[in-house]
Each structure stands twice: as structure tokens, then as C-alpha cells.
Write a structure and sequence with these properties.
Length: 323
């Protein structure tokens, strides 16, 4: 009898200890101390881990960018609890993210059995349909998208997949509406939906509309001017510091082709050619700078004054050489 009581109290203490540990883990995770929470969780014996514990481990690995460990944890969860739609959807999403048929086939290995038991889980259904599309089962993908819409799914993923599936099934006219919806959901800033919408419009006789959407896609694909200007500027400074003038010139020319109104770059080109002793090209870029720029800032005014003085000096040098 005393042995039974002792065992009971030992188990009770262990449960209380584990409960307190889980409370600490939850507190750490909620406050963003993910690595500490994960360390405590992985210290719990595997046979004592609950479903919630494993979900938290999955979330920790995900937040730490450890995708393979997160995937392995999700698979462990599904192996024990095959009805865990959240993890089935996460596994399928991982494989679908590669956008390759072979990987999408693996996604179907997880979604198909689940769908046979429960077709009402929108998250799993959406990944199932995405995998059907990626494996070129366009008819099944279309049917799935239509069912998802009937279930109230109005996401970009479903609209885009439906539009692309119609288009790749040689039904460009039907592709227009879902692709338009996908583009709207992304506020006409998503290059993928804009490009596909543009193609559909051109093929179905909406030529001008299609060209406009393709132009919008082009603009969406271009990086911000401010960012590119900063990248080019630092590349120029880096090459200049290394004395690689030819690379400085190449970078300045690319910078200028990307931002043609950055007229001060003509002045910078003239300075590089001055360092290289190429007076003809230096003079050419000084004239280009003065012709294109205006004195609309103190910095540009100073640069224009310096350029004018330099041109006068070059003219005098040519006269001396000519004599």
C-alpha cells in the first residue's frame, strides 16, 4: 500500500513539474524568447511530449528559420495524429513552395489521404489544389478551386491558381475573371498576376488593356530607384577606392541608364576620365552635365561652377598645345 502511495505522489510531482515547465515555456515563447523555449521543450522526454508541445516545437523551428527541422517535426506530428490538418497543410505548403511537379507529388501524398477523411479543411484543400495545379492536373485543379470558392475562400492563391489552370487548359476567356481578381487582391502591384492577366488580355482581343497590365508588371519587377541608386553609389565608391577606374565607369553608366535624370552622374564620369587622363571624354561629359542639369540646388550649383571652370582650363590647355 505504501509503495502505491509513494508511486502516486511521484507521478503527481512529475506531472506538476511538467505543468510548471510548460507554463515557463509558454511564457518564454509568448515573449519572443524562442530559442530558450525550444531548449526547454527539447529537454522533455519524447514520450512525454504532448501534441501542443510538438506544435510549439514546430513554430519555434519555423521562427528560427530551421525549415528542415520544422518539416521533420510536422511529419512526426502527422505520423502520430494523421487528423492534424494544420500540420498536413504546413507540410504540403513546404513542398508546393518549390513550384516543381516532383515536389508537389510529395505534397499530394499528404493531402490526398487527409482529403478522403475531411474535405472541409480549407487550408489543406487549398494546398491540395495547388499541388494538383503544379502537377499539371488542371481539370482537377479547376474543380477544386471552384469548390474552394463555394466554401468562401477568396484568397489570392485560389484566384491565381484558377486563372492559370483555365489558361493552361486553353480557356483564356475564363482565365480573365480570376486573374483580374488575383491582381485586385494584390492592388495591381504583383508582377505574376499582372503578367498572366496581360497575356490573357492580349490573347482574347483586349490588346491595349493587356499591354497596360504588362507595363504595370514591368514596373512592379523593377527595384525602387532609391535602393538602386544607393547600391550603385556604394559600388562606385568601392571601385574608386580600389583604383579600378574602368569598373567605376561601367557602374556609373549602368547607374545612368537606370536613372537617366541623375544628371550629376555625367559630372562624376568627367572626374573619372580626368583621373585617367582622357581629356576628350572628360570634356564631353562636362558638356553633357552642363547641358542637361539646372542649378536647382546648392550642390548642383557648385558642381556646375566647377564644371565651367574645368572646361575653361581644358580649352586653355588645348590652345597651349595647339601653339
Amino acid at each position: 500500500m505504501s509503495r502505491s502511495i509513494s508511486l502516486f505522489f511521484s507521478l503527481l510531482l512529475a506531472c506538476c513539474s511538467l505543468h510548471a515547465q510548460r507554463t515557463d515555456i509558454d511564457s518564454l515563447y509568448q515573449r519572443g524568447q524562442v530559442r530558450k523555449a525550444l531548449t526547454l521543450l527539447t529537454a522533455i522526454p519524447a514520450d512525454s511530449l504532448s501534441r501542443d508541445d510538438m506544435h510549439t516545437i514546430f513554430k519555434c523551428y519555423t521562427e528560427l528559420g530551421q525549415r528542415q527541422k520544422a518539416l521533420a517535426t510536422a511529419k512526426d506530428i502527422v505520423a502520430i495524429w494523421p487528423d492534424d490538418g494544420e500540420m498536413v497543410a504546413n507540410i504540403a505548403s513546404y513542398y508546393n513552395s518549390f513550384k516543381e511537379a516532383a515536389q508537389a507529388d510529395t505534397a499530394l501524398m499528404y493531402t490526398s489521404p487527409y482529403m478522403q477523411r475531411d474535405s472541409s479543411n480549407v487550408y489543406v484543400f487549398r494546398q491540395h489544389v495547388r499541388a494538383l495545379y503544379l502537377t499539371e492536373k488542371y481539370g482537377a485543379a479547376i474543380n477544386g478551386c471552384l469548390k474552394l470558392r463555394a466554401m468562401g475562400d477568396s484568397t489570392y492563391s485560389t484566384a491565381y491558381t484558377l486563372g492559370r489552370s483555365y489558361y493552361l487548359s486553353d480557356n483564356a476567356k475564363k482565365a480573365y475573371e480570376p486573374l483580374m481578381e488575383a491582381a485586385r487582391l494584390k492592388e495591381f502591384k504583383d508582377p505574376n498576376s499582372l503578367t498572366q492577366l496581360g497575356f490573357v488580355c492580349v490573347e482574347t482581343g483586349r490588346s491595349r488593356e493587356g499591354a497596360d497590365y504588362l507595363q504595370m508588371a514591368e514596373q512592379a519587377l523593377l527595384p525602387p530607384q532609391k535602393l538602386m541608386s544607393s547600391i550603385y553609389h556604394n559600388m562606385e565608391e568601392g571601385y574608386m577606392a580600389c583604383g579600378q577606374n574602368n569598373l567605376v565607369i561601367e557602374t556609373l553608366e549602368r547607374h545612368l541608364s537606370y536613372i537617366p535624370t541623375a544628371y550629376y552622374l555625367y559630372y562624376k564620369l568627367s572626374q573619372v576620365y580626368m583621373l585617367m587622363g582622357d581629356g576628350a571624354k572628360e570634356e564631353f561629359y562636362l558638356n553633357e552635365f552642363l547641358t542637361r542639369s539646372t542649378a536647382d540646388s546648392e550642390e548642383l550649383t557648385q558642381m556646375r561652377t566647377a564644371a565651367q571652370k574645368r572646361l575653361l582650363l581644358l580649352t586653355k590647355l588645348k590652345e597651349v598645345v595647339g601653339k
